[in-house]
Write a structure and sequence with these properties.
The complex is a heterotrimer of chains A (about 775), B (about 280) and C (about 170).
Chain A (H helix, E strand, L loop, with lengths): L12 H5 L15 E7 L5 E7 L1 H4 L4 E5 L26 E2 L5 E7 L2 H10 L1 E6 L6 H5 L14 E5 L6 H6 L2 E9 L11 E7 L2 E6 L4 H12 L6 E4 L15 H13 L3 E4 L2 H7 L6 E9 L5 E11 L6 H12 L9 E9 L14 H19 L3 H8 L8 E2 L6 E2 L4 H11 L2 H13 L5 E10 L20 E7 L5 E5 L8 H13 L6 E5 L16 H28 L6 E4 L2 E4 L2 E7 H7 L16 E6 L8 E10 L6 E11 L6 H21 L30 E4 L17 H18 L13 H10 L2
Parallel strand pairs in A: 1-12, 10-11, 14-15, 20-21, 27-28
Antiparallel strand pairs in A: 1-5, 2-4, 2-6, 3-5, 7-15, 8-13, 9-10, 9-12, 13-14, 16-17, 18-26, 19-20, 19-25, 22-23, 23-24, 26-27
Chain B lengths: L8 E4 L3 H10 L3 E4 L5 H6 L7 E4 L9 E4 L2 E5 L4 H6 L1 H6 L1 H7 L5 H6 L2 H7 L6 H8 L2 E6 L2 E6 H4 E3 L2 E2 L6 E8 L6 E6 L9 E6 L5 E5 L6 E2 L1 H8 L4 H6 L15 H18 L4
Parallel strand pairs in B: 1-3, 2-3
Antiparallel strand pairs in B: 4-5, 5-10, 6-7, 6-10, 8-9, 11-12, 12-13, 13-14
Chain C lengths: L8 E7 L2 E7 L5 H8 L18 E4 L2 E4 L12 E3 L13 H8 L9 H14 L5 H7 L11 H11 L9
Parallel strand pairs in C: 1-5
Antiparallel strand pairs in C: 1-2, 3-4, 3-5
Helix pairs in contact in C: 2-5
Classes of the chains: A alpha+beta (about 775), B alpha+beta (about 280), C alpha+beta (about 170).
């Protein structure tokens, strides 16, 4: 029986539910010292002096470093030339949270005291805290190499003035995609141990080989003596692909002090130091006709890069503009983008990374067109969908060739769960009753680009390559170990990859282990991001398993004196088709696979071991349809989500329990962005939401339950048919929520409300209407 | 940044007398009860006392006693105990109700009523109960006991009438047996402090008190007077924010807070049985 | 190696039925005492403002955030961590098993605190409804699950043994 599609309990859980998980901060090697940071409290300032004398004189303090102490080291990797982020700020600090000095002490508490004792003399410089400030004429500049604060500008890819002039109707929309903090519950943590035999770094990281390659290059050391281990990782959401400066500082200090050095970010540090996500502004123009048919679309994306542009951050608007047409066949699309620096925390990947921004934009546009034409939003979607037989579909972007999907099918499936006419009737009745809460119904038909795997797709972000590695190694007793480069941090990869391998190998799921996260154990690897683990890494496991199985069949055929084509496996027994009595157990085949005398001619011992660098020809395109029903308190402006209906198409489902978990988690983060979370700065660039008291990560009472459905179109780019699901919810949920909020307020003439839809914002609208 | 308190000396007091003695002999000492207001501030190093005097073991400051016309609640009584107390539920049901809404379950298990009140946080829930019910604070110093009306207790932002060498030992709540009550707490996220809160105590001496509507916890005086004189809920609610100077923050500007105070007052009045 | 001279105090806590007695600075947080002195690393730190609940343990059988309690405050008391709620021989408590059965965890970092908060809930209210479960977990943040599967995990435990027993 196939395990693909089966609800299988996770192999990961026994450790994690008993407190036996091993996260980086749990490690305490002998002699381990602790690192703490002195961070800039100024958004932009010249660093006049750093007085470390008091800190140095404290008992237990081993080192206090300022920029002078790292003079021989490069800047943080993934920086842009001329706009480098130094590991420790030298002449100037450019955001609140920029590292100004580093202390190491024998224990955590002393390190905190020493950091507190470092005195920094700042000379404040004018700061730019927002895109508007950064782009103003005569704005203060952050990086002298730039003329102004724009790092990169791409003008509209096409001139659509003729299309817009000829269109029966046009409309415009300005959107802010609010800056979010990723907030994995485990912040950045690193332990570095630089000994005579080499450097070992344990890091809460999503891509250990990527980090290994980078650390070795950074220090000019050999990769064979550089080992990176990502043990249990407490969530990443994209933020743990970034090369946090702390990782390199811990290694440098371990080398200098000849002892292990550990660093654990506090949450308040994490809020300003771990790179943020989203932070885009959109200017959108749409041309359409009276039926709601969209004729042309112009999108300009302005991406806030924070104080130091990062290679991933620079790519965000590329993804947003590539996916700007969403699920729709829009005859003409022109996109433009620019990357702008501000005195804020750098911006890079956060769950969805550029794609939630695109779906939010186009799904708001769809509802705007519905509002302008009076055509129901469902109809506008159906009018414009790329048809189910329209694939492959070349979008306006060379990056995005949609491979598969059935957008109308997903929406129809959604409407089987949602009684839309009844909701519309309830909405009207409530509107007529001044004491009733307002009801809003919002839809999103979303699509994203995922499965980062085609050659070139990750190289553009600084990775070695875009394949994913998989090694399948059968042990002499017939159990198997899978080694994957797709290092997980909560996805359940150990379980899903074992499911895939069990199916291909005919070895019991319980006798398959999956190893990951250690560059000394895993041959090579890329990492887990961009919803690629199953679509690329899982496919690799399938490919490698198939190769091993073919070889095992050869051995079994040899042992059974049968032809290979007649060999089948059942219950871990190889037998000749139609003759179950003529069989040899997997364990025997495995054992003999190591014994030259038992092997068929030409076969080497140890051949039940295959390593694959899995390539895929295209990205994947998960899609779906969501519906959100909100109630709004007319007196307070409070929004409550009453229902959240979710239909996902992630292609083949390996484990429905884990798929549901990924969808729920992504949707929760999407709702959080739409209603709760917003990383804010005051006008001078001081963060206003730098703790979990002020930055509102929602808890259980603040979020709804979910109703889930599914449609399946297969991914043609891999044999599994799987598309990936990690980012889906964060892509689909925000527009559904905001469309519902706007729908509830549309009788007041409301066309748009920016995220997060806070009670105060809505109250202001309601009050203004009286 | 954030996690580790500065160093301090730690002393334990076994009695109020001992605690007073320690307070008098140490400069810059702070009393430690449940620690759920103090420890977070110390971790952020917003407060770094040289000495902590742990009073949590003082038995005489624990528990609820029925003292005739009042309930006497020991300052070290934890929120959870107040929330579950039958005698509180019977005689000061507003207090039991609100004690169950403070923070989250973990906070309620450790935090104490006295600790919450002496912290004087205008955004905290329990001061509004003391104000709405007309409670009396019992404070002990070297000169003996003195009693302070709740309305005189909260003097400035995070500052109460308790002197540096004094200890809040108990709170006396007049019994409101059988009287209606209401508490409305407006939050964006369940665990958070109120953006605005309103406590209403019905009965012969009705009271309305506000949470997070100024730098100190305060009664809604005009609304309370109107209520006592028999005004209807809409009229009373319209007066809720009179004389307040509400704070402005990311969640609410002053106008919105005034509006919320009025809306929540009406709802709390309705819950308390007024029409 | 340099030495640190500081005023310390002896703290003795019964952790999961075992007495742990150490000289520590009075400012030592209970969570660090558990992780670094008792070497029980199942209890995690996720924030510094008492919001996230990853550090939740039971003190005298009641849920508490061990990052907001000084170790000295637990002196002479009983503390139960996630390591202490299974049956000790590799078996899981009903709440632990519920998290496994209903996929109530992904990265696992918030999970020990969640399990302890859920254990305390079921000890007090063996048959909570969904609303009560969500309210009882208001002091615990999870970034992975969206909470619905955690609600189901508690419901699973409620019908399969409840809070369980511990030392």
């Amino acid at each position: 029986m196939s395990l693909i599609g089966a609800k299988v309990l996770r192999k990961e859980d026994p450790n994690l539910i008993t407190g036996q998980g091993q996260y980086v901060d749990d490690l305490a090697p002998a002699g381990c010292a602790f690192m703490a940071m002195v961070r800039s409290t100024e958004p932009h300032a010249r660093i006049v002096a750093v007085d470390t004398s008091a800190a140095r004189s404290m008992d237990g303090v081993l080192a206090v470093w300022t920029s002078a102490d790292i003079a021989g080291l490069p800047a943080r990797p993934s920086s842009l030339p001329g706009m480098d982020m130094p590991l420790i700020a030298g002449d100037a600090a450019r955001f609140v949270g920029d590292i100004v000095a580093v202390v190491v002490a024998t224990d955590r508490y002393t390190a905190a005291d020493a950091a507190e004792a470092v005195i920094v003399d700042y000379e404040p410089l004018p700061a730019v805290a927002s895109l508007a400030q950064a782009l103003a004429a005569d704005a203060p500049m952050i990086h002298p190499v730039l003329q102004g604060n724009t790092v990169f500008f791409q003008d509209y890819t096409e001139d659509l003035s003729a299309e817009f002039a000829a269109a029966p109707r046009t409309a415009s929309l300005s959107l802010v995609n609010n800056r979010c903090a990723p907030v994995p519950i485990e912040p950045n943590v690193v332990l570095a141990d630089w000994g005579p035999a080499g450097l070992t770094v344990w890091a809460a990281f999503q891509a250990p080989h990527h980090l290994r390659n980078t650390i070795a290059a950074f220090f000019g050391i050999s990769q064979d003596t550089t080992r990176v281990i990502a043990p249990d990782v407490g969530g990443g959401f994209g933020a743990k692909i970034n090369f946090a400066s702390e990782i390199f500082l811990a290694a440098a200090l371990s080398r200098a002090l000849s002892r292990p050095v550990k660093y654990t970010q506090t949450r308040s540090e994490c809020m300003v130091a771990m790179f943020h996500g989203r932070a885009q502004e959109h200017k959108v123009d749409v041309a359409f006709d009276d039926s709601g048919k969209i004729l042309a679309l112009k999108v300009q994306v302005t991406q806030d890069q924070g104080a130091y542009p990062d290679a991933t951050g620079m790519g965000l608007p590329v993804l947003t503009t590539a996916m700007s047409a969403g699920c729709y066949k829009i005859p003409k699309v022109a996109v433009s983008w620019r990357n702008v620096v501000t005195n804020t925390t750098p911006v890079a990947a956060y769950r969805g990374a550029g794609r939630p921004e695109a779906s939010y934009m186009i799904e708001r546009v769809i509802d705007l067109v519905a509002d302008e034409t009076g055509v129901d939003p469902i109809e506008v979607r159906k009018t414009n969908f790329i048809p189910a037989d329209g694939f492959p579909y070349q979008t306006h972007s060379p990056l995005a060739v949609y491979d598969s999907g059935n957008f109308a099918g997903a929406l129809d499936e959604l409407l089987r769960h949602v009684d839309y006419p009844a909701l519309k009737a309830e909405q009207a009745a409530r509107l007529a009753d001044p004491n009733a809460k307002l009801l809003g119904i919002g839809f999103s038909s979303w699509l994203e680009i995922a499965g980062f795997g085609p050659p070139g797709s990750l190289e553009a972000f600084g990775h070695l390559a875009s394949w994913e590695s998989a090694q399948v190694r059968v042990q002499p007793d017939g159990s198997a170990i899978i080694y994957t480069g797709a290092s997980p941090h909560g996805q359940g990869t150990v379980t899903t990859f074992a499911q895939i391998a069990a199916d291909q190998l005919g070895i019991d799921f319980e006798r398959i282990s999956v190893r990951h996260g250690d560059t000394a154990v895993i041959p090579q690897g890329i990492g887990t991001m961009g919803s690629r683990a199953v679509a690329v890494g899982g496919e690799g496991v399938k490919t490698a398993s198939t190769r091993v199985f073919e070889r095992a069949k050869k051995i079994a055929a040899h042992l059974l004196e049968a032809t290979e084509d007649d060999i089948v496996v059942e219950n871990e027994e190889f037998h000749v088709r139609g003759t179950p009595s003529k069989s040899v157990p997997w364990s025997q085949v495995a054992w003999k696979s190591f014994q030259p005398l038992e092997l068929p001619a030409g076969m080497e011992p140890g051949s039940l071991d295959a390593t694959v660098f899995q390539q895929v020809p295209n990205f994947s395109f998960p899609s779906g349809a969501y519906c959100c029903v909100v109630e709004i308190d007319r007196e307070t402006g409070e929004v409550e989500i009453r229902n959240m209906y979710l239909v996902d198409d992630c292609g083949t489902v390996i484990n429905p329990m884990l798929v549901e978990g990924q969808v729920h988690g992504g949707v929760a983060q999407g709702i959080a962005q739409a209603l709760y979370e917003h990383m804010q700065y005051d006008e001078s660039g001081v963060p206003r939401t730098a703790t979990l008291m002020d930055y509102l990560v929602p808890a259980a009472p603040d979020l709804p339950g979910y109703v889930s459905g599914r449609t399946v179109t297969l991914n043609p780019s891999n044999t599994l048919g799987a598309k990936g699901v990690g980012e889906s919810g964060s892509v689909g949920a925000p527009p559904a929520v905001i469309n519902a909020v706007v729908d509830a307020l549309s009788h007041l003439g409301v066309k748009h409300i920016d995220m997060p839809a806070t009670p105060q914002k809505i109250w202001s609208i309601l009050r203004g209407s009286k | 940044m954030g996690m580790i308190p500065a160093r301090f000396d730690y002393r334990q007091a076994g009695s109020v007398a001992e605690a007073l003695q320690l307070l008098a002999s140490c400069d810059d000492a702070k009393l430690l009860a449940g620690g759920h207001s103090l420890v977070p501030l110390m971790k952020m190093r917003l407060v770094s006392p040289s000495t902590l005097i742990d009073i949590s073991g003082i038995a005489e400051l624990q528990g609820v006693t029925d003292a005739g016309s009042v309930l006497r609640v020991g300052a070290l009584t934890r929120h959870r105990v107040v929330e579950r107390s039958q005698v509180v539920a019977q005689h000061v049901p507003l207090l039991a109700h609100v004690a169950g809404l403070v923070g989250d379950p973990q906070v309620r298990n450790r935090g104490t009523i006295g600790g919450s009140l002496v912290h004087g946080d205008p955004a905290a829930d329990l001061p509004s109960v003391a104000l709405a019910t007309g409670a009396t604070m019992v404070v002990t110093g070297s000169g003996g006991e003195r009693r302070i009306a709740a309305s005189d207790f909260f003097v400035d932002f995070l500052e109460t009438a308790v002197g540096p060498d004094e200890i809040l030992t108990a709170i006396e709540f007049p019994k409101r047996t059988g009287a209606g009550f209401g508490y409305e707490k407006f939050v964006r996220r369940s665990m958070d402090y109120a953006i605005v809160g309103v406590a209403v105590q019905a009965g012969e001496q009705p009271g309305i008190a506000l949470v997070n509507m100024g730098s100190v916890p305060r009664r809604a005086d005009a609304a309370s007077r109107a209520l006592a004189s028999g005004a209807g809920v809409d009229a009373v609610a319209a007066l809720a924010a009179d004389g307040t100077n509400p704070p402005e923050d990311l969640n609410a500007n002053a106008d919105y807070r005034r509006h919320l105070a009025s809306v929540l007052t009406k709802r709390a009045l309705l819950a308390a049985g007024y029409r | 190696m340099s030495t640190i001279e500081t005023h310390t105090t002896r703290v003795t806590v019964t952790v999961n039925g075992r007495e742990v007695s150490e000289e520590v600075e009075p400012r030592t947080l209970l969570v660090h005492f558990l992780r670094e002195q008792a070497r029980l690393t199942g209890t995690h730190v996720g924030c510094d403002t008492s919001n996230c609940g990853a550090c939740t343990v039971l003190i005298d059988d009641e849920a508490a955030k061990s990052c907001t309690v000084l170790a000295v405050q637990a002196n002479g008391h009983k503390v139960t961590t996630v390591e202490g709620v299974g049956n000790g021989s590799g078996g899981f408590s009903p709440v632990q098993e519920g998290f496994r059965q209903e996929h109530g965890l992904q990265c696992g970092y918030c999970t020990p605190g969640m399990i302890m908060a859920c254990t305390a809930l079921l000890a007090e209210n063996p048959r909570p409804n969904e609303h009560q479960i969500r309210e009882a977990l208001e002091g615990n943040l999870c970034r992975c699950t969206g909470y619905e599967t955690i609600v189901r995990a508690v419901q699973w435990a409620a019908t399969n043994g409840g809070a369980g027993e511990w030392a």
